[in-house]
Amino acid sequence: MENIKSYVQQNKDRFINELIELLKIPSISADSAYSQDVLNTADAIKESLLKAGCDKVEICETPGYPIVYGEKIIDTNLPTVLVYGHYDVQPADPINLWDSPPFEPVIKTTEKHPDGAIFARGACDDKGQMYMHVKALEYMTVNDKLPCNVKFMIEGEEEIGSSSLAWFVERNQEKLSNDVILISDTGMISNSQPSITTGLRGLSYVEVEVTGPNRDLHSGLYGGAVANPINILAKMIASLHDENNHITIPGFYDNVEELSLEERSEMAKAPFSLEAYKKALNIEDVYGEKGYTTNERNSIRPTLDVNGIWGGYTGEGAKTVIASKAYAKISMRLVPNQDNLNITELFTKHFESIAPKAVKVKVTPHHGGQGYVTPIDNIGYQAANKAYTESFGVPAIPQRSGGSIPIVALFEKELKSKTILMGFGLDSDAIHSPNEHFGIFNYLKGIETIPLFYKYFTEMSK
Amino acid sequence: MENIKSYVQQNKDRFINELIELLKIPSISADSAYSQDVLNTADAIKESLLKAGCDKVEICETPGYPIVYGEKIIDTNLPTVLVYGHYDVQPADPINLWDSPPFEPVIKTTEKHPDGAIFARGACDDKGQMYMHVKALEYMTVNDKLPCNVKFMIEGEEEIGSSSLAWFVERNQEKLSNDVILISDTGMISNSQPSITTGLRGLSYVEVEVTGPNRDLHSGLYGGAVANPINILAKMIASLHDENNHITIPGFYDNVEELSLEERSEMAKAPFSLEAYKKALNIEDVYGEKGYTTNERNSIRPTLDVNGIWGGYTGEGAKTVIASKAYAKISMRLVPNQDNLNITELFTKHFESIAPKAVKVKVTPHHGGQGYVTPIDNIGYQAANKAYTESFGVPAIPQRSGGSIPIVALFEKELKSKTILMGFGLDSDAIHSPNEHFGIFNYLKGIETIPLFYKYFTEMSK
Where in this chain does the record put each Peptidase M20 dimerisation domain (chains A, B) (predicted)? Predict the structure, then answer.
């Protein structure tokens, strides 16, 4: 019986190569052109779970992409950990900004990753972080160290709203019954300072279409006389924030939880350099809601961002045209207590109400999810903290994340259990961006830390 | 010796087929992918001018696309008409909105064109209208009816700013010397009511780039904390008009010529139905500068329109990203006395000044041109009016157009002669739009009318 550190050392090259193979499959759930690749990735996950020691693995059909379910039940009297992850990835564009092809993984060292990092779409979000759990299971089964039951639920639609997962969870509460849910799909402060995400933002994502004239028009003959959908869309988007960058949608802030000054000063203790932040993004200044710090703006405050906009002539050269239509994709990050369906409704009502009579407006909801907060006094959190403390040598700091994992709120509602977000990525890993990567150190450290969580969670559950 | 009407009747099928062949060549000057097609079109124009009876035709090299020059000098004591036109066309996108491929011409009847119209990019703007002059020359030479000298100058960069034409004209004043310049690149009120364009708007066309963070970011982790270039661009664009739709660029209106109430009431006499206008565009309401009518807004008032906008994720589905950059193409239509270079400078200074510190802004001028007004008391205008009156049975109405033919101001400056804009297209011909077309009636009527202009202009010049 060897310990996890030495097992990882002996097998690390294989662990890295297995992940690289997984990263070669372009499982982009948002683009139907890649649907076969998404399905192939599900098969690959199934194989890896069987190899890692699951007794039973199924590819569960859903209205959308399948969910890979696996389990190893050693004793029904022992607690059960449900591991969640996703095998789909974000689209890779803009492709031209990648230094190497997004689905041809390469290992390069960076300032933050002197031991090297794997560069590929999905390296961190979430194939790399999900696969740590598969390898941790392998270690525990091979070395007879699995102290409790484990279930895996790996989905293929996280990047497009997890609607099939919701469908699946509602129908399989018995099968998915567990004592704690474990997810690695978030980040930590640094490789020397682990952190546990205790809060997530919710999400409301819509697409808007503004229609002016029934056809593209010559901007000379019609310019100035008809509503230009692009100008109107710009006006409408601009009006969604006031001069203090508060969002102007009536009712938007009604249920926003205001943190106490104590809580805010607790948060402010997390190490943060505004200068380093600006330097890393090459910006002269930050920008956001008046009255809040950068770390508050991206975690405890709701936001509204345009994620994409298009209309008219966008090719080479100049075309003097007034477009018939203009479009934008707009997402709102929500804080706990803001209901995403309600926010989507408020947005739609408001957006339609501010449209001038000279245009027609269509709002199409994409996907959304609720925010979430984990209390730090439950044994799941404490087991995770002990695991981090042992493998990193310092305790983890509880942190609110600005990101959204909509299904976490769903899990609590349907499965009545808490979710522990043990993230091993760094904010600088460029998830959702060109040149996404995941540190070799982080990947292996994750594999080392996870079995410790199982150990302490089982102990504390007695 | 036969008259023009019967000559057109006998040859109309050939006239139509020759134009259709010309329209099959995708001479899109704005897109370098089509450069060989643009050059091939120049060759085709050269052949057609030789066939039509020019003594000498040259393909004149320039820094850009060549200019086709042709001439027939019958007597240096007689006046000389310089015909200008362009053989390049606008890009065809959005391709998917065309009912038939833009470069596979088809003839269909429409409500406004019961005798049929040719549908193709460039059918009206300007291959169809330019080719009327070639066929009018053919009639005059074949039937020995050419009463004066004629020169042709057909360029290939009108849709991208005519910069090579300016270069060419400045260097060939002797070769291009003339008594009047004749252009068919505008429209008329209707097939029963001809009009002559006496005013054109100038143009300033710029492309703007707004850069926020140095890479695309995850909108959850950074949303609300950094300037989103798309939101900022929308804000900046929105701020370019005030609540009365006046343009807010300081100094923008300084040189705008204010028309007298008399002039405005003269203009107001042109037949116009706001209801029909709205119905034709399927809009609930018009939209524009407070205090001016629709026909004033698109002719005697300057405008600012976004012709294209893009940034972030515009593909299928949803991507929660904050883009690093956002772009827009913006054009300003100018009225006489507004200098386009000065306006471009004012725009650039203003746009840079309103950018928040959190983003970087780049403004790139595309092309531009001055506005122009033709007095209706010169013999060129009067000859054109007599020609219209004879071939349509009613006199032409003088009209200001909102469009821009930047080189008209250049011609007056460099060649010291007036330009007569004899347009035969209709506003409904969808130039610069999908399904551009040109009526068979208009095409043939143009060929009929042009020789009458030569006749009366020569008579009046005596």
Answer: 199-357
Judged against a pLDDT cut of 70, whether residue B1 lies above it is answered with no
The domain total for chain A is 2
CATH number of the domain bearing residue A380: 3.40.630.10
Domain boundary among B319, B345, B369: B369
Query: Does the model's pTM come out above 0.80?
Result: no
Mutate to test the interface with A, among B287, B332, B408, B428 (most CBs of A within 10 A): B287
Q: Domain for residue B174, yes or no?
A: yes
**Residues of chain B neighbouring A355 (CB-CB closer than 8 A):** none
Is pLDDT of A1 > 60?
no
Q: Are residues A170 and A56 in the same domain?
A: yes
Question: What ipTM, to 2 d.p.?
Answer: 0.74
A288 touches chain B (CB under 8 A): yes
| pLDDT per position as a tens digit, B180-210 | 999 999 999 999 999 999 888 889 999 999 9
Q: By CB neighbour count within 10 A (0-12 exposed, 13-18 middle, 19+ buried), where does A374 fall?
A: buried
Decide if A97 touches B, using CB distance below 8 A: yes
Torsion of CA A217, A220, A224, A227, to 10 degrees: 10
Report how far residue A393's alpha carbon sits from residue A396's, in angstroms, rounded to the nearest whole number.
Answer: 10
Residue ending a domain, among B321, B345, B369, is B369
The confidence score (pLDDT) of residue A2 equals 58
Q: Is A396 in a helix, a strand, or coil?
A: coil
In this complex, the residue of B221, B309, B319 whose CB is nearest that of residue A91 is B319
Reported confidence tier of residue B265, pLDDT bands at 50, 70, 90: confident
Question: pLDDT tens digits for A289-309?
Answer: 999 999 999 988 999 999 999
Contact present, A433 and B218 (Cβ < 8 Å)? yes
- Residue carrying the six token digits 């499959």: A25
Residue A330 to chain B, least CA–CA distance (Å): 9
Q: Confirm or reject contact between A238 and chain B (CB < 8 A).
A: yes
Same domain, A316 and A412: no
Determine how β-strand B180-183 pairs with β-strand B80-86: parallel
B403 close to A (CB below 8 A): yes
- Mutation test of the interface with chain B: which of A65, A329, A361, choosing the one with the most B Cβ atoms within 10 A? A329
How much is the mean pLDDT over chain B?
94
Mark yes or no for CB contact B402/A366 under 8 Å.
Answer: no
